[in-house]
Every structure is written in C-alpha cells, then in structure tokens.
Amino acid sequence: MFPASLALAIPLLAAAVQAQPLDHTRDVNRLLQARCLPCHGAAQQMSGLRLDRREDALRGGYSGAVIQPGRSAESKLIQMVSSGVGGRVMPPVGPRLTDAEITTLRDWIDQGANWPQSSSDATTAPAPIKSIHWAFQPLVRPAVPRASNPAWVRNPIDAFVAARLDAEKLHPSAEADRVTLLRRLSLDLTGLPPTLRELDECLAPGQTDAYESAVDRLLSSPHYGEKWARPWLDLARYADSDGYEQDGIRRHAWRYRDWVIQALNRNMPFDQFTIEQIAGDLLPGATLEQKAATGFHRNTLTSREGGIDVEQLRTEQVADRANTVGSVWLGLTFNCAACHDHKYDPITQKNHYQFYAFFNTAMEQNLDAPAADEMERYLETRPQYANKLEALKTKYKVDELQPRWEQQARAAGGNPDKSPAWTKVWDYLAVYMDGGQQIVQLSPEKRTAKQSHALLRTFLKSPGPLLSEEESKNLKFADAFKELNDLDDAYPGLGEVSTIAEGPVRRKTHIHIRGNFRDRGIEVQPGTPEFLPPLDSSLPPNRLSLAHWLVSRGNPLTARVTVNRIWQELFGRGLVETSENFGTQGERPSHPELLDWLAVEFMESGWNVKRLQKLIVESATYRQLSHRRTDLDSRDPANKLLARQSRYRLPAELVRDVTLAASGLLNPLVGGRSVRPPLAKGVMEIAYRAKWEDSQGADRYRRGLYTFFQRSVPYPQLMSFDAPDSLLTCSRRTRSIIPMQALTLLNDPVYFEAAQALAARVLREQPGTFDQRLDYAFRLCTSRLPKPVERARLAAYYAKKSDKQQPPAGQAAAWVGIASVLLNLDEFITRE
After folding, report:
1. How far apart are CA 257 and CA 263, in angstroms?
2. Cα 163 to the chain's mean position, in Å?
3. Whole-Å CA distances, 405 to 398, 440, 630
4. DSSP string, 686-701
5. Under a CB-based contact definition with an 8 Å cutoff, are residues 560 and 566 in contact?
6. Residue 2 has pLDDT above 50, yes or no
7. Strand 496-502 versus strand 509-512 pairing type
8. Residues 762 and 773: beta-carbon distance below 8 Å
9. Residue 745 — very low, low, confident or very high, per pLDDT cuts 50/70/90?
10. Cis amide prior to 808 (ω within 30 degrees)
11. Each residue's pLDDT tens digit, 286-318
C-alpha cells in the first residue's frame, strides 16, 4: 500500500514544481522544502517519507520508488496521481491534480528530477536535532557551593542542600537519634530491621564510629543484594510466568534474579552491570554467567496460545525490549514514538525504529545450566526416568508417528497455504517451544537432549491432523501429553538459564506505518536519537555498541537517571520526582546542581554503586529527623527542599520481611527458586489452569523477593501494598493507604501465624516480668522501648485477657494479642 503521507505531500509537490521553470531546479527545490516541510510531521507519522529529500523520494520499498528519474511512467508518484494503484488515487480527498500539473510532474521526472547538491539546500541530511532541555545537556561537574552553616556539612551533598535551604531562608532538621538512624539504615540497605545485638552495639557507650561501622557492615551483608535487587527487578518487569491468558510458568526465571542479587552483592560496576544485561552474549568469550545476564530481555510477556500471530508477538516483544532499555537507562518514553513522532520530546518515529533495530535481530535461547543441587539427584534418577519415558513412547507409537509429524510441519513451513491445519502446527512450534521452528528443521542427531524432549512435548500437545479420529481414539492419544507431564513432574530435570543471542539471519528493520507491523515503511539501520551523542562509529551497530554508548562519558542521561533512582530509594522520592520520565514532560530536578554533581561523581568513581550509596547515607541530609515541621507544611509539603528526612511505608515485600524477622520465622537463605507462601483458597480459581501448592517447611518463610509472581493472579498481599504488576517496566511505585492493608495485617494467615510466633519467641527468649517481656517485644518490632502510655494500655489489655483463661493458655493468648498489635503498628511497617 502506498504511504498515506504522500497524499499530503503530492499537491504541494505538484504546485511547487508547476510554479517554476523546469530548468530552475534549485528554485524548485527551495519551494519544495518550504511547501512540503509542513507535511513532514505527518510524513514521519506514516512512514518517515520526505519528498523534499532526494534520498527518500528515490528510495525503494513501496513496490517501486516514489520517483524514478527519467522514467515517469514507472514512478509511483505519477501512477498514484494519474490512474491510481489498487483502487487508490492520490490525493484521496480534496481536488484532484489537473492534467497540466500531472504533465509538469511527468516532464520534470523525465528530464531527470534534478535536486540541487548544495549543502544549503534540502537534499542534504537534516541537521541533528538540538534541544535546550536540561536533561539532554552535557554533564559537567558543578562547583560545590558554600553554606552559611559549614558545621552541618558532612560532605558535598550537604553543601548543595544547605545552599538551597539558605536561598529559601530555611534550616535543616536535627539529626535523628541513633536507634532511628540504625533502623533507617538497616531497612534502606538490607531491607531488614536491625537485630537486638546490632542495637546494643550501636548504643554502647564510647561508640563514636558506630554509624560508619554499621554502614560498612550493611553494605557488605549478603542481604544487601536482596534489598537492592527488588527495585531493579521492577525495572526489568520480572515475573515467574508468561502473562496473557494461559500464563505459563517460567521454571527457570529465578536464575536471572539470582544473577542480579549476586552482581549487586559483588558491587559490579554499573557500566559492566549494564553491558552484561544488554549484550552479555556479544562479549568476547562470553561466559555462561554473562549470557545469563541477558535474561533481562526475557522478562517480556509471552503467549503460548494456539492461533496467535507469531510475527506480531515477536515484534511486540522486540518493541518491549527496546522501550524498556530506553526507559530504564535513558528515562525516555520511546514507546510514544511507535506510531508517530513523539509529541513532546525530540524522538522521531524513525528514531524509535532505529532503536528497535538493535533488538530486532535477537532470538531467544535457553542454555543448560544445572543448579548446584540438581546434578546428583538428576544422575540418580535418570535411568529410571529413561525407562518410563521409553515405555510411554512405545505405548503411543512415538518413534513411528513423530517423524511423519515433523515432516508435515516442515512442509507447512515452506508452503503455508497448502494445508491450514498443518500450518497451525507449524505456527504452534514457534508459540509453544522457544526456537521450535528452527529445532524441527535440525536432523535428530544434531538436536540436544532438551531440544528433542521439547519437540516430543510439542508433538504430543499438538499432533494436528496426523491421526484420524479413530486412530486417536484407539491410541488414547489425548492422554499422552498428560502422562508425559506427570512423568516430568515426578523426576528432577536440569536447570536452564533464559538468554538471548543474535539470530543466524540479520532481519531488516522498517518503520511500522502507524505502528502496524504489517505495514512497512522505509528501512532503517540501528541508531540513536540525534539530540544525544552519536554511537562510536568504529564499532558495529549492535547491542554491544548500544550498551557501551549508554554508559559512555558523553551520554548525559544514564548517570543522571541512575543516581536519581538510587536517591529515590534512600529518600522516598528522586531529585527528579518523575524518575520514569526525564523528557520535557517530566519534573525538573529540585536540586539540579546536586544531581549533576552526583552523576559525574558516580561515573568518575568507576560507576561504583556502593560508594555512591555510602556517600549519600553518611551525609547530614540523610541523617535528619523525619518529624513533621509546621514551618514546612505550606512551603514544602512534599519535602522537595530536603529540610528533613522522609517518612514512608515500606514496600510490599519488606512489609512481609520485617514481620517474619520480628517473629523469628524468617528463613535467611539468599537466592534460589521462587516459593509459594500460604494463599487463601479460591484465589487461584480465577486464573487459567494456574496451580498454587503452598510451600512447606522453611520455604514458607522466605523473603518477599522470592514469592512466586503469577502475572494473571499476583500474590494478594503484594498487590495490597502496591507491588507493580510486572507487565511493564516500573521505576516508581505508588504508595496507597487502603483498608485492605489493615485487614491483611490483621487477618491474613501469614501475619496471624507471625503473631503467634512472635508471642512464642517473647515467652521463650525473655523470662521475667511482663514489663521485661514487653520491652523485648517492642525492641524486636520497633527497635525502641515502649512509651509510658503504650506500656499502660498494653498492661491493662494483658491483665484483662489473661484473667479470662487459665494459665498458661491465658498468658499465651494475651501475648498473641499483644504481638498482633505490635505487628499492626503504623511505625512497624514504616521507614522513619
């Protein structure tokens, strides 16, 4: 189909040509530029076509070039304005071109359709788009300002904050007490409350460096990686299932999560962290671990449903990968330019598909990677499994039938119109199996054991018209897939890592006209937006060069975006509140010089994340009280000026974590498979074939980070406390206050069990009086001692509750009630 953008440009082109003598091509072109450029925005929306540029008008891709110099009869332009193509005539609305105008265009084309070659005219490539927007400007380290109160300043962060407060005639808040600081620090760096031993060490007399020591200890904790993995997994849209209606389970998704935890614990430099996730497979001599990092891209939604358009699904996944990288590292909304030029930022539709092109050549690849606890069990049980599998294959005549099925599927791939039923099988190979269409074309001896097994599963799942109804009934073929599933579930397999790799054939990338993947516009090459520094031309334009470009010193966005998100985690909001959008529609930074200073410091430190976090948490700005100040209520209610610390509810996973930690139930194991905590009956019934078997033993008490995330039915406690749905990248969680949160903490089986465990812990670990036990319980839950009014009210409750039942049952029941009260305190689930 001819691009609709031409409909807008044709009248202008014709009028411009007719208005000038044919030999005055330079003047003609000047008019073309003046008259056609108003259509440029619409042209970019449709296909990227520009009739004022020679290279676009002569480009193929529309079943013939728009203009073929010297051959007007073969030029698409003349065909459309004269007789039309495929029933369409241009322009589709308004007056048709006159015979004289068409003749003028014919003569101009037949005489060569000359464009001038001067660099001052429209034939040259347009100048790179420049923007005055603050986020797109080069990064330069600002000078550290002087503050009116230098005694308050602990490091340059404070100098920037103090200077802004001075300008507003405000003063910072006092430093928080040591208990509050330690609890804040522990929650921010590890996501867990401090232990009683850590509190005692912090409060010991003469501990002048206790805070600094705590910072170093917490940054070195294995739980640090768990805490900081969660916001990154939000960005990576991590989940344990495919999404869509069938929402199949991803048994090995947790391997990417483990990679993130380990990389953070090792303090992998952020530039390396970036490169390995975007293009670890393209690194020279790439290790399995580096390839596993590309699991970042495998978190896209995947449909396993029959009848879907395989190419549509693929293009949607490619777009999601490109848009996610643009959002995570650049803070830009590339997705807004999928159908037309971005309405607000200098991102054209062509830019969108140039960025898309980096990911269009990748294919999904699963690599064998046995986990540490798998090999021994696998080897022990494999002989028995193999015997049962062979018996199943014999029972259903697999060795006889599957080769015929594969042959018919391959034939349908080569001639999809011949047999719709077999074409459906061919399409299903791509849907149900990762790389299924490629694997079925391999000879059996060239397939890996896993590939062969996956092909067997697909054959039994979708045999197509291979068997007649009578044959299928006699063989009871419908039972075969279920029997294979049961067999696979009964015996352990070997683990995999989900990765991407470059495909064997490099796909061409075209602009999708109006975002429709079937309607292709001009071809584009991998590239980045013109308003940012260019790619290194000495490197091939692939994902690896893109990754290096993202963390290059000249790129002004990656460092700004990243330090802003780290600041967001430590203060509840970023210096730029819209951490997901650094474009012109995002918020301006509250402290632009501080943001740039931190970004430059981050890069020049070797992209050292822990060093940056240490710098922030050791600042006087971070150590302030979070108490309300009446002088700020009207002047700075959102605390943008940082005259105090922020107080906010813990993220969903940490609400669970602090509850398990205080109760003594927490399983501190780091890493590993996802678990399924107790779930109310009936929740999973709304999902399509989803199953939920509660984990047993210590797995019931893993951290919230490890809770199995089923996209179609996310774990209710997580969603009640505003966890993202994992369908798209999320850089900033909302924080709501709804009744369901209180009901969850009061009545959910997990939290009631935690209250019972906390009561038992207090009675077991702290002998003595009621007051001694209450002190112990308060310190476990809030890190502080109870206030007199709290002590009095709980003592009255205890006396009333314990008198109603015979000891020790009455005593235990009373302490369960007290434990439930403490676990439901606003303070308990709040980071001060």
Report:
1. 10
2. 36
3. 10, 10, 76
4. GSSS-------GGGGG
5. no
6. no
7. unpaired
8. yes
9. very high
10. yes
11. 999 999 999 999 999 999 887 788 899 999 999
Q: Give tens-digit pLDDT for 57-73.
A: 665 443 446 777 777 77
Instruction: Name the token pair of 149.
Output: 């109160």
pLDDT tens for residues 363-406? 999 998 988 778 888 888 999 999 999 999 999 999 999 999 99
Report residue 379 as tokens.
Answer: 């080897």
Tokens of 570: 């430590």
Give the Cα separation of 530 and 44 in Å (integer). Answer: 15
The helices-and-strands tally (H runs, E runs) of the chain is 34, 6
The answer to whether the beta carbons of residues 788 and 771 sit under 8 Å apart is: no
Amino acid 120 reads S
d(CA 832, CA 830): 6
Place of tokens 């791939």: 413
Q: Which residues contact 57 (CB under 8 A, 6 or more apart)?
A: 49, 50, 51, 65, 66, 67, 77, 113
Tokens of 253: 């998704």
Burial of 801 (C-beta count, 10 Å sphere; 0-12/13-18/19+): middle
Query: Are 348 and 44 spatial neighbours (Cβ–Cβ below 8 Å)?
Result: yes
Residue (of 293, 269, 270) closest to 282 by Cα position: 293
Cβ(146)–Cβ(588) under 8 Å? no
Q: What is the DSSP string of 541-582?
A: SSHHHHHHHHTSTT-SSHHHHHHHHHHHHHHSS-SSS-TT--
What are 412-470's pLDDT values in tens digits? Answer: 988 888 888 899 899 889 888 878 888 899 999 988 888 899 999 999 988 989 988 88
CB 107 within 8 A of CB 131: no
Q: How far is CA 596 from CA 138, 141, 154, 592, 603, in A?
A: 10, 6, 19, 6, 11
How far apart, in whole angstroms, are the C-alpha atoms of residue 579 and residue 146? 28
Contacts 24+ apart (CB under 8 A), 168-171: 168/635, 168/636, 168/641, 170/631, 170/632, 170/635, 170/636, 170/641, 170/643, 171/643
CA 37 to chain CA centroid, nearest Å: 37
Give the position of tokens 């980096």.
358
3-class secondary structure, 343:
coil
Structure tokens at 548: 């290096």
Is residue 26 over pLDDT 50? no
* Pairing between β-strand 830-831 and β-strand 520-524 as defined by DSSP bridges: unpaired
Classify 63 as helix, strand or coil.
Answer: coil
Residue-level pLDDT at 109: 81
Residue 166: predicted pLDDT: 96
CA separation, residue 231 to residues 359, 656, 701 (Å): 24, 16, 21
Q: How many residues does the chain have?
A: 832
Chain position carrying tokens 């009871």: 476
The model's pLDDT over 746-758, given as tens digits with 9 standing for 90+, comes to 999 999 999 999 9
**What is the per-residue pLDDT for 86?**
61
Q: How far apart are CA 589 and CA 556, in angstroms?
A: 14
Return the pLDDT at 28.
37
Structure tokens at 532: 């940012």
Instruction: Tell me the per-residue pLDDT of 536-559, one tens digit each, with 9 for 90 and over.
Output: 999 999 999 999 999 999 999 999
- Residue 117 per-residue DSSP state: -
Q: How far is CA 189 from CA 157, 568, 570, 614, 702, in A?
A: 19, 13, 9, 10, 18
- Cα distances from 108 to residues 67, 75, 122, 330, 620, in angstroms, run 10, 12, 17, 46, 73
Residue in this structure with the two tokens 């995570």, named with its chain if needed: 328
Position 55 scores a pLDDT of 60
CA 688 to chain CA mean position, Å: 24
Q: Indicate yes or no: pTM above 0.70.
A: yes
